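ARCHIVE CARD
Drawer: 12
Card no.: 0347
Subject: one protein chain, sequence and derived structure
Cross-reference: see card 0346
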Amino acid sequence: MTLVDCLAPVVPVARQPDVAREIASVIASLPSSMGNNMFLRQSIIRRGTATHDHVIDGLAAWVTVLFDLANLQQDRDRAMGLEARIPDQALDRLARALSKSRNGCILAVPHIGSLELFAAHLRDRGLNVGFVYSIGKQPTPTERWIYAGRRATAATPIAFARRNTGAEISRVLQNNGVVFMVVDVYPSAKYAGITIKTHDADFRYPPGPARYARSGTLVLPGFASRRDAAGFSMNILDPIDYRPWMPVRNAASDFTQKIAARVDGFAAEQPAAYWLWHPIPNDPYLAIAQRRRPDLLTSALAMPGDDEAAALAVDELRSNWTGTVDHLRRRDAPSHSSPALAESIV
C-alpha cells in the first residue's frame, strides 16, 4: 500500500498495470500466505492447477486496484480520465430497472476488476450510488487508506455488519439509488449466509440480495473487467428473477444460485481479473482444497509462507524506487504527463 501510494502520482495511469505486475512478480517470487491463497483461488476458478504466471496475474489485478484507490484519493480527475467502456444496453437495463423497481436497485458484483472505478463512473453519470464494504470496528491503517479511496468514488460507503447497515442501504434505495454488493463470498463467521453450488462445491453467499429482492428491489449482476493500459469495461445484466410464490427459504436459495451462475460464468471468462487473496471466514476455496484437491495444498504448502520476507522484498522495491520518485517529483514538468516516465520507474 505504501509503495503504491508513493508511485501512483508519478506513474502514468496507463503504465500502472505494468508496474503492478512487477510488484506482483516480486511478491510471487517468495512463498507467502498471499501467494498461497491466490494459488488456491486461481486453481479452483480455472478448474486446474494455477501456474506461477496465473498467481502473478491475480496479485497484479489486486495491486492495480490499489493503484485505482490511490489515484482516486490523490487526483480523482486523473483516475476518472481512463476510458470506461459500458454498453448502451447495460445503461438502458439499469434505467429500466430503476423505473420499475419499488425501491432502487442492487448491483451484485464479484471480486473482479475495478469495482471502485465502476461505482465512481456510475456516480458521475448522475446516479445515486452506495456500496457495502467490509472494515474492522477498529480499522487498521491499511483499512483506513482503502476506505479513503472508496470515499473518493463520491458514492456512499456503507459498512458491513453494523447496526445501521440496513438503514444506510435503505436510505440509498429509497432515493431510487443503486447499491453495490459484493456477493461471491460471505465475509461473516457469525452468520451462515446462503449455501449455493459453484466450482462444483458449496459456497456461502450473503443473504442480502435475496432479502431485498423479496421486498421488490430489483437485483442485477454487474461486472467490471481488469484495468489495462487502455482502460476498463463494465457491464450490467438483466435483473435476476425472484420467485415470490416459493417458500421464502427456497426462493432465496433459488435466487442466490442464479446470481452465483452469473458470477461463475464471468469468473471463468476473466480469471486473471479475480483479485481476492486475503483469508475469508469459512474459506470455501480452502474447503475445496481440503476435501477434493489435496494436491493444491501440497503444492501451496511445499514451502511455508514467509510473509515477513515477502514484505521486506516489497520494501526493497520501495527503497530502490525512492530516489527515482523523488527526482521526478522535483521536476518542473507535470509529474504524470511524460510518456517516458513509466520507463524510468519500471
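Annotation on reverse: The longest strand covers residues 218-224. The beta strands are 83-85, 105-109, 129-133, 156-159, 178-182, 194-198, 201-205, 218-224, 231-236.
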